[in-house]
Design goal:
With 111 residues, the protein is of the alpha/beta class. Helix content is 46%, strand content 17%. It has a five-stranded parallel sheet with strand order 3-2-1-4-5, with helices on both faces. Helix 3 crosses helix 4.
Protein backbone atom coordinates (compact mmCIF):
# COMPACT_ATOMS: atom_id res chain seq x y z
CA UNK A 1 0.00 0.00 0.00
CA UNK A 2 1.17 3.44 -0.89
CA UNK A 3 0.26 6.31 1.40
CA UNK A 4 -2.08 8.99 0.06
CA UNK A 5 -2.01 12.63 1.15
CA UNK A 6 -5.14 14.53 2.21
CA UNK A 7 -4.58 18.28 2.43
CA UNK A 8 -7.16 20.02 4.62
CA UNK A 9 -8.14 16.66 6.11
CA UNK A 10 -9.96 18.40 8.95
CA UNK A 11 -12.40 20.27 6.68
CA UNK A 12 -15.76 19.02 5.45
CA UNK A 13 -14.54 17.48 2.19
CA UNK A 14 -11.24 16.32 3.66
CA UNK A 15 -12.97 14.55 6.56
CA UNK A 16 -15.22 12.69 4.15
CA UNK A 17 -12.27 11.63 1.99
CA UNK A 18 -10.32 10.52 5.07
CA UNK A 19 -13.35 8.50 6.23
CA UNK A 20 -13.64 6.82 2.83
CA UNK A 21 -9.93 6.00 2.80
CA UNK A 22 -10.25 4.44 6.24
CA UNK A 23 -13.22 2.35 5.06
CA UNK A 24 -11.12 0.81 2.31
CA UNK A 25 -8.04 0.50 4.57
CA UNK A 26 -6.03 2.94 2.45
CA UNK A 27 -3.10 4.49 4.31
CA UNK A 28 -3.03 8.28 4.26
CA UNK A 29 -1.44 11.21 6.01
CA UNK A 30 -3.69 14.13 6.75
CA UNK A 31 -2.62 17.77 6.90
CA UNK A 32 -4.36 20.91 8.07
CA UNK A 33 -3.51 24.59 8.34
CA UNK A 34 -5.80 26.91 10.22
CA UNK A 35 -7.43 24.64 12.75
CA UNK A 36 -5.47 22.79 15.37
CA UNK A 37 -6.14 19.07 15.14
CA UNK A 38 -4.23 16.39 17.02
CA UNK A 39 -4.94 13.83 14.27
CA UNK A 40 -3.26 15.79 11.48
CA UNK A 41 0.05 17.46 10.76
CA UNK A 42 0.38 21.17 10.11
CA UNK A 43 0.97 22.39 6.54
CA UNK A 44 0.77 25.81 4.90
CA UNK A 45 0.35 25.04 1.19
CA UNK A 46 1.48 28.60 0.38
CA UNK A 47 4.96 27.57 1.54
CA UNK A 48 6.32 25.81 -1.55
CA UNK A 49 9.46 24.33 0.04
CA UNK A 50 7.63 22.93 3.05
CA UNK A 51 4.91 21.46 0.83
CA UNK A 52 7.46 20.02 -1.59
CA UNK A 53 9.50 18.46 1.21
CA UNK A 54 6.46 16.83 2.80
CA UNK A 55 4.88 15.50 -0.39
CA UNK A 56 8.23 14.33 -1.79
CA UNK A 57 9.09 12.50 1.43
CA UNK A 58 5.78 10.60 1.29
CA UNK A 59 5.81 9.98 -2.50
CA UNK A 60 2.05 9.37 -2.54
CA UNK A 61 -0.10 7.75 -5.20
CA UNK A 62 -2.76 10.41 -4.75
CA UNK A 63 -2.87 13.93 -3.33
CA UNK A 64 -6.35 15.08 -2.35
CA UNK A 65 -6.26 18.86 -2.28
CA UNK A 66 -9.35 19.85 -0.30
CA UNK A 67 -8.09 23.19 0.95
CA UNK A 68 -10.32 26.23 0.70
CA UNK A 69 -9.77 29.72 2.03
CA UNK A 70 -12.54 30.35 4.52
CA UNK A 71 -14.72 33.42 4.25
CA UNK A 72 -16.22 32.89 0.83
CA UNK A 73 -16.18 35.20 -2.16
CA UNK A 74 -16.29 38.40 -0.10
CA UNK A 75 -13.12 37.50 1.78
CA UNK A 76 -11.39 36.47 -1.45
CA UNK A 77 -12.27 39.84 -2.96
CA UNK A 78 -11.07 41.76 0.08
CA UNK A 79 -7.84 39.71 0.35
CA UNK A 80 -7.07 39.30 -3.35
CA UNK A 81 -3.34 38.69 -3.12
CA UNK A 82 -3.52 36.07 -0.37
CA UNK A 83 -6.51 34.41 -2.03
CA UNK A 84 -4.66 34.24 -5.35
CA UNK A 85 -1.58 32.78 -3.66
CA UNK A 86 -3.72 30.24 -1.83
CA UNK A 87 -6.11 29.14 -4.58
CA UNK A 88 -4.00 29.59 -7.71
CA UNK A 89 -0.29 29.57 -6.91
CA UNK A 90 -0.42 26.89 -4.21
CA UNK A 91 -2.50 24.64 -6.45
CA UNK A 92 -0.07 25.12 -9.35
CA UNK A 93 2.86 24.40 -7.03
CA UNK A 94 1.28 21.18 -5.78
CA UNK A 95 0.77 20.18 -9.42
CA UNK A 96 4.45 20.85 -10.12
CA UNK A 97 5.47 18.81 -7.08
CA UNK A 98 3.28 15.91 -8.15
CA UNK A 99 4.62 16.13 -11.68
CA UNK A 100 8.10 15.45 -10.27
CA UNK A 101 6.84 12.36 -8.45
CA UNK A 102 5.94 9.81 -11.11
CA UNK A 103 3.78 7.72 -8.77
CA UNK A 104 1.70 10.75 -7.81
CA UNK A 105 -0.90 10.66 -10.56
CA UNK A 106 -3.98 12.44 -9.32
CA UNK A 107 -4.77 15.84 -7.87
CA UNK A 108 -8.32 16.54 -6.82
CA UNK A 109 -9.34 20.14 -6.22
CA UNK A 110 -12.51 20.99 -4.33
CA UNK A 111 -13.91 24.46 -3.86
Amino acid sequence: HMTDVVIAANGLVGQNIANQLELISQDYRGFCFSRSDANYESLDIRNFLETENIISSISPNVVYLCANKSGGVNKCESEKDDSYNFHVEATKNIGKICNKIISCYSIIRYY
